[in-house]
Design brief:
411 residues; mainly beta; Jelly Rolls; eight-stranded antiparallel β-sheet
Length: 411
């Protein structure tokens, strides 16, 4: 899925390619007896290394380069291009072993921050505009002795000088691009204003003094910057889950909303269990089932579509599942089904385990969980998850297994 056979290299391509904002293609009609989209997304044959690379789809996403740090002691000029819709993320970082001397470029509040320290005091330059607009932007961040400049889209947006008389910077490789190693996050956090997440978006043409940055040593969670994606979370066919809440109590009332675009007809969408009580949203052979147990037996509502492959037709489908005391309701694309009504007198769903989006924890639960009618992985995309009208932030730190956050393939 979205792979190159060669290692990513951020050298300047001979011919620069500018990508337009992606528009999801209209899915082909669902073939009779099968889903519209393949189980595993098709490779985008139109994408090339000149289009850049996408970061932030997994926890710890980054690249690490080895470079001769002697080239930057007295002066340097780094440059790169980025595009993102995220407000925060690390674009570039390198420091010494104590992270006193450092060079950092990152986004915070959508604004580009450039910081450096020659050892006697840090300098910080912040652009005035926000650049998380999904368009490509060029950045040059340079320094001569104690004086630094930040240039965005060919415009000088700020200058500043580090304090003290020290004029040289002494840093050690690796040079981090798109994120940093978890091993240095505590030491580096002051230099990057607590922005410890990987950059979510695409980078290209990362250079030092108009040359390749150096030798690529490690590449973690970096894929080609295909234009055939859209916002969301993708669950692969090998299985994965997002721990939305480590311990969750459903209680008396819960309102769940989410959009799905599956690639198969069965799979677990959302679940949470207690000792006896549970809440489950699952697809079983094309039928969407919402089940809750308050301790006196399961209460269920089902949406049976016109045909088994209705949900996997390549389009997004909006689901709303509501539990209020002993009544459950379910709607798909604003069409409601007959509610499920349980035994009066038991109104609270007393769960305590993790609220999981996607597959259940198979290591923890070796036996069949109560209410479970399928053990198949959910495969496909999910977006716009709301619980009790609060949007759920789904990021890479919550992922277990093969889940790609921030983008959904459209092929």
């Amino acid at each position: 899925m979205l792979k190159f056979t060669e290692e990513p290299d951020f050298g300047k391509p001979e011919e620069e390619t500018t990508l337009s904002t992606a528009t999801a293609p209209t899915p082909a009609p669902t073939p009779a007896g099968k889903c519209s989209l393949p189980l595993e997304p098709a490779n985008d044959t139109s994408v090339s290394p000149a289009d850049g690379y996408r970061f932030g789809t997994v926890a710890g996403s980054r690249q690490e380069y080895g470079a001769n740090s002697g080239r930057i002691k007295m002066k340097y000029e780094f440059s790169l291009e980025f595009k993102t819709s995220a407000e925060e993320g690390i674009l570039f970082y390198v420091g010494d072993d104590r992270h006193i001397d450092f060079i950092a470029l990152y986004l915070k509040g959508g604004k580009v921050h450039y910081g450096f320290n020659c050892g006697s005091g840090a300098a910080l330059i912040v652009g005035e505009k926000a650049y998380h607009d999904g368009q490509w932007h060029s950045v040059v961040f340079n320094r001569t002795h104690t004086n630094g400049n930040l240039i965005i889209d060919s415009e000088v947006v700020g200058v500043n000088s580090s304090k003290g008389a020290t004029k040289s910077i002494n840093v050690l490789s690796p040079y981090y691009v798109g994120g940093i190693s978890p091993n240095i996050s505590n030491e580096a956090k002051f230099n990057i204003k607590n922005v410890n997440g990987s950059f979510i978006g695409c980078l290209r043409n990362v250079q030092l003094n108009s040359k390749n940055l150096g030798d690529l040593r490690h590449s973690i969670g970096v894929i080609p910057c295909s234009n055939k994606v859209e916002p969301g979370v993708f669950f692969a066919h090998t299985g994965g889950q997002i721990i939305a809440h480590p311990s969750f109590r459903v209680g008396v009332v819960i309102d769940i909303k989410l959009d799905i675009r599956p690639r198969k007809t069965s799979g677990i969408l959302l679940s949470v269990h207690g000792r006896r009580d549970f809440l489950l949203l699952q697809m079983v052979n094309g039928v969407l089932k919402f089940s809750v147990d308050n301790g006196k037996g399961a209460i269920s509502a089902e949406y049976t579509p016109p045909h088994e492959h209705y949900f996997c037709d390549g389009h997004w489908h909006t689901i709303q599942a509501v539990k209020s005391k002993n009544v459950v309701t379910l709607s798909v694309d604003k069409t409601s089904v007959e509610p499920g009504i349980g035994i009066p007198g038991s109104s609270s769903t007393d769960t305590r385990d993790s609220l999981i989006i996607g597959d259940f924890n198979r290591t923890l639960h070796q036996r069949r969980l109560r209410g479970l009618q399928t053990r198949e992985f959910y495969v496909g995309c999910i977006r716009n998850v709301f619980i009790n009208e609060e949007e759920q932030k789904l990021d890479a730190s919550q992922v277990r297994g093969n889940v790609m956050v921030s983008v959904c393939p459209t092929t």
